[in-house]
Write a structure and sequence with these properties.
Layout lengths: L18 H15 L9 H9 L15 E7 L2 E8 L6 E6 L13 H11 L1 E6 L11 H21 L4 E6 L1 H17 L6 E5 L9 H6 L8 H11 L23 E6 L5 H13 L4 E6 L12 H18 L1
Parallel strand pairs: 3-4, 3-5, 5-6, 6-7, 7-8
Antiparallel strand pairs: 1-2, 2-4
Helix pairs in contact: 4-5
């Protein structure tokens, strides 16, 4: 009998969580417990605090190697953050997370420049429009426009037609929606891979998200509901353009799903990984014991291991 799940049941055992990860989780939970929940604040106040470095993610580090450009979009020019290394083997289209409401492409320069240098890829990160000022379909419209631009121009702009797409959290959702739109609207199925880290693929909420409750390890159930309500209406939660778990996933590129066992979105990755396989696509699932939402953005060993595996995956996609 073949085992297509590639999941070791031991990863879900609390006893295998290493001491560094456990201590880090305790620190994050304590820090967040002393702050007002962000869903009690106006979105712009939360954005300004994050931009000023007043969040668990710390100061924003801008890298001089990255540059700001624009790509034509359906509602005007779309800002993109671009890094081009000396050697280019391919292009990585990056879509940042933030619950569809928070974050800017220039908040992710460490990922943009780091991935670009380690994988020898030109990185194009999309500064898509944010909810609630710009609810669905603004964000996927912008991501689709950038993907379409890359499909037409990646060779002339960056010297390679090999494109990998990926992102974190809401960015992983938008990455899959972008793949579906490019296939269905533009007959483009030439992406080499998808890097999908702790994505939210079902806005009606999978069991792990719905049952998580109020423990604050970056996400809570109420916070996720706040993100979703500001992004779109509940009537759209089963629309594949909002919740790609419900989509026809045939013809998708190889994917790497990364998630931690203490992430409320655990089931989203488990379910999407299996649906990816069931649709006839290649998929890898990396589950990290005790890892929380956005864990690989922090300087801990489990993050270094996850990021190294992402680098290996991108390298393999471009080989």
């Amino acid at each position: 009998m073949f085992d297509y799940s590639n999941i070791d049941p031991k990863v879900f055992d609390p006893e295998v969580i290493d001491s560094e990860t456990a201590a880090f989780n305790e620190k994050i939970e304590k820090e967040l417990s002393s702050q007002p929940p962000i869903y009690t604040l106006p979105p712009q106040v939360v954005r300004e605090a994050r931009a000023a470095g007043h969040s668990v993610f710390g100061p924003i580090v801008r890298r001089d190697e990255a540059e700001d450009r624009v790509v034509p979009g359906p509602a005007g020019d779309i800002p993109v953050r671009i890094f081009v290394p000396d050697t280019v083997k391919g292009v990585y289209m990056h879509i940042h997370g933030g619950g569809f409401m928070l974050g800017r492409a220039n908040h992710f320069d460490e990922i943009i420049v780091g991935t670009g240098k380690r994988c020898s890829v030109a990185v194009v990160s999309v500064d898509y429009r944010l909810a609630p000022e710009n609810p669905h379909p603004a964000a996927p419209d912008d991501c689709e426009a950038v993907a379409f631009w890359l499909a037409k121009n990646s060779s002339s702009e960056f010297g390679s037609k090999k494109i990998v797409v990926g992102g974190e959290s809401a960015g992983a959702n938008l990455s899959v929606v972008t793949l579906l739109r490019m296939r269905d609207r533009h007959d483009f199925t030439e992406f080499r891979g998808a890097v999908l880290s702790y994505g939210a693929y079902d806005l009606s909420m999978t069991p792990s998200a719905r049952r998580w409750g109020g423990r604050n390890l970056v996400l809570t159930t109420k916070l996720m509901q706040w993100f979703h309500e500001n992004y779109t209406t509940a009537e759209k939660y089963s629309d594949p353009d909002v919740s790609p778990l419900y989509g026809d996933l045939s013809g998708m590129p190889p994917a790497l799903f990364t998630v931690g066992t203490l992430d409320p979105l655990l089931d989203d990755s488990l379910f999407m990984h299996m649906r990816w396989l069931a649709a006839g696509n290649a998929s890898e699932l990396a589950v990290y014991p005790g890892a929380i939402h956005a864990f690989n953005a922090f300087p801990i060993e489990i993050a270094r291991r996850a990021n190294a595996r992402i680098v290996e995956f991108i390298d393999a996609c471009l080989a």
